[in-house]
């Protein structure tokens, strides 16, 4: 591993540190695998999508949102704890990889890093 560690992918903090094979952010508590530059994990190569705690997601699963999310272009908020049923995994815009319909809000895309398998 190089002398400079990457910033936290969750909050962007530059104060990350190594804990065994994991990188940890002291600001938000996010942990992720330390990868050698240019290397991908077997899961990423196979296209496996995992939730915020590492569970493998598949089409038709029910997930729970783990933090409040502002809906872009509106004053609506998806509250933490909201259950989203019958998700569909897609190659969406940016790193949004879940296509779903949320009751009271409508169709939208979510990042797998903000949901947990129910």
Automatic annotation (TrEMBL):
Coiled coil: none
Transmembrane regions listed in the UniProt entry: none
Domain Protein YjdM C-terminal: 49-118
Gene3D superfamilies associated with the record: 2.20.25.10, SH3 Domains (2.30.30.40)
Pfam families in the cross-refs: YjdM (PF03831), Zn_Ribbon_YjdM (PF08274)
Sequence ranges assigned to domain Protein YjdM N-terminal in this UniProt record: 4-33
Record-linked InterPro entries: YjdM, YjdM_C, YjdM_N
Family in the record: Belongs to the YjdM family.
NCBIfam families: phnA
Protein name as annotated: Zinc ribbon domain-containing protein YjdM
């Amino acid at each position: 591993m190089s002398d400079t560690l990457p910033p936290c992918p969750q909050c962007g903090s530059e104060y990350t540190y190594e804990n065994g094979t994991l990188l940890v952010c002291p600001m938000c508590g996010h942990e992720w695998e330390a990868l050698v530059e240019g290397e991908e994990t077997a899961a990423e190569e196979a296209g496996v999508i995992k939730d915020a705690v590492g569970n493998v997601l598949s089409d038709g699963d029910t997930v729970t949102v783990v933090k409040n999310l502002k809906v872009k272009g509106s004053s609506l908020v998806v509250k933490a704890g909201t259950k989203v049923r019958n998700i569909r995994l897609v190659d969406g815009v940016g790193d949004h990889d879940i296509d779903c319909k949320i009751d009271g809000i409508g169709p939208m895309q979510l990042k797998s890093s903000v949901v947990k398998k129910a």
